Amino acid sequence: MDNPEYVDRLGRQRPKKFKTLASEVGFCFSIMTSQIMAEYFISGFNVIIPALVKDLDIPPAATIWPASAFALTAGSSLLIFGRLCDKYGGFIVYSLGLLWSLTWSLIAGFSRNQLMLVFCRALQGFGPAAFLSSGIMLLGSSYRPGPRKNLVFSIYGGCAPIGFFSGIFVSGLSGQYLNWRWYFWIGAILTSISLATALIYVQSDFQSTRQANADQHVEMDWLGAACLFSGLILVFFAVNDCAHAPHGWRTSYILVCFILGMFVLGAAAYVEGWVAKQPLLPASLFRVPQMKPFILALFFSYGVLGTWLLYTTLYAENIMGAQPLQLVAWFVPFALGGIVLSALGGYVLHLVHGTILLVISGLAWVLAPLLFAIAPQGATYWAYTLPAMICGTLGIDITYNIANIFITTKLPDQEGLAGAVCNSVLFLGVSFFLGFADLTAQQTESQGMRKSYKAVFWYAVGCASVSVILLLGFVNIERAKSEVREGDEAEGEGSEGHVEMARAGQE
Fold it and tell me: Residues in domain Major facilitator superfamily (MFS) profile (predicted)?
């Protein structure tokens, strides 16, 4: 038997933990729909902002906070939930995260003022922080590297644009025919479906995780968690609020929050590097070859994502005059592109060099905002918006798929950490760069709304260009091929000797 063929066959088999195809489909359905719900609560909120501002009497200077509070709390707490996954298993964290998100989605629909809405959105962000990190852990630990894992992660990544479109669709429907509150209530109903499916098909890994960690004594780094969370909140608050502070960056509370936040993050670095026995962000993560430039490139790419999503929606509504349901129709190619790419991704990720795919996605992220930046007055949907939508789905789908596969494969025994890092970079990138995008819009608002939006798109083009430079100059990711994992002796169809031969073939 040819060793590479045997390893490839291992990578195509259904994992032994799934007794039937139906159990695997049910498991994947819950994880995939949780990804959809995370994107649902990011994208759709942008469409209902005009109705919120009018109904809750929210001043224009404060509209960014209900949008960014969700991403900020999610990104700041993902590492904490990632450690809880490694300590208690993914099932408990995943289920409780869905339940938490469901609860605060219901409450958010009853918001009576700006403070209550921001409070609910901030608390709602802890839900995706829990179920996204644990969801990737559950997927990464269930599938060995190979075509089947590539396909599953491609579908998972393809759920991002589907979730984005779902949020746009429900919010557009609510804004035009119902009430903005139904956006949250329908989201709660959809989240309950994902939770019910998880309780039926996702196996509890609490006992197995505890047994696996019996010798390692996995502990929560509470001091590091407190420093990281509070430091990120303070810094990101300063970044997001400086555009509308009385004196910008010179405003006293902005400076105090930023300086104090940087000091606390410095303390977090000291705790993680020299004090904590089991740091939330271990140094081993950054010793993985090419991990540091790769994460930095992802940070810029996801920053472009957040900026592009919000300001594309605002540009379409305020400049192009799109109605809520018309905006839904315009974003259809974004969702369809995600479906097509998820279907194709599982068949090409193990055939095509990863760096080539990343550069393609990076160039797509440059073109997505560039098309809006150069669009002339009265530009048609077909000439500029449609190509931008196609580039947008190329950017997020390819980037997210490769990031998840690369990081979970490089950290095979730390899937909770891997899932937390993947999504933390996403949410923090969205929140951080959105703050500077808002500052760009505020600094150029005297030129008129259209030119102000275009300035933001040029800012996004610059961020995307930095990401492409990092990928071309410092990142080299091979194709996602099949590999043998520990424990494959029990799951492979061949003998133990075949597994040893496969390992020898890899070496």
Answer: 19-479
* 197 and 300 assigned to the same domain: yes
- Among the three residues 276, 295, 317, which one is the final residue of a domain in this structure? 276
Q: Are residues 203 and 248 in the same domain?
A: no
409 with 442, same domain: the answer is yes
In the prediction, which pLDDT does 499 show? 37
Q: What is the CATH number of the domain that holds 363?
A: 1.20.1250.20
Q: Are the beta carbons of 430 and 42 closer than 8 angstroms?
A: yes
Q: The tokens of 31 are what?
A: 């994880």
Q: How many CA atoms lie within 13 A of 507 on its CB side?
A: 6
Domain that holds residue 243: 222-276
- Does residue 120 register a pLDDT over 70? yes
Candidate from 272-286, 452-466, 467-481 with smallest mean pLDDT: 467-481
On whether both 134 and 249 belong to a single domain, the answer is no
At 349 the pLDDT is: 59
Question: For the residues 463-483, what does the mean pLDDT come to?
Answer: 76
CB atoms within 10 A of CB 21: 9
Between 29 and 414, residue with greater pLDDT: 29
DSSP state of 384: I
Do residues 123 and 235 share a domain? no
Q: Which pLDDT does position 490 carry in this prediction?
A: 47
Tell me: do 44 and 107 sit in the same domain.
yes
Statement: residue 481 has pLDDT above 60: no
CA distances from 410 to 145, 480, 483 (A): 10, 11, 12
Contact indicator for 220, 83 with CB cutoff of 8 Å: yes
pLDDT at 216 over 60: yes
Instruction: Find the DSSP H helices in 178-220.
Output: 181-201, 206-212
Tokens found for residue 423: 């999504």
Q: Residues 286, 324: one domain?
A: yes
How many structural domains compose the chain?
A: 2
Residues 270, 297 share a domain? no
Last residue of a domain, one of 232, 248, 276: 276
Q: What are all long-range contacts of 206-214, with beta carbons under 8 Å and residues at least 24 apart? A: 206/88, 206/89, 206/91, 206/92, 208/89, 209/86, 209/87, 209/88, 209/89, 209/90, 210/88, 210/89, 213/86, 213/87
Spatial distance between the Cα atoms of 60 and 242, rounded to a whole number of angstroms: 14
Q: Which of 497, 488, 410, 496 is nearest to 9 (CA)?
A: 488
* 428, 240 Cβ separation under 8 angstroms: no
Q: pLDDT tier at 94 (50, 70, 90 boundaries)? A: very high
CA 77 to chain centre: 13
Residues 417-456: pLDDT tens digits?
A: 766 777 788 888 888 888 888 888 888 888 888 999 999 9
Does the pTM surpass 0.70? The reply is yes
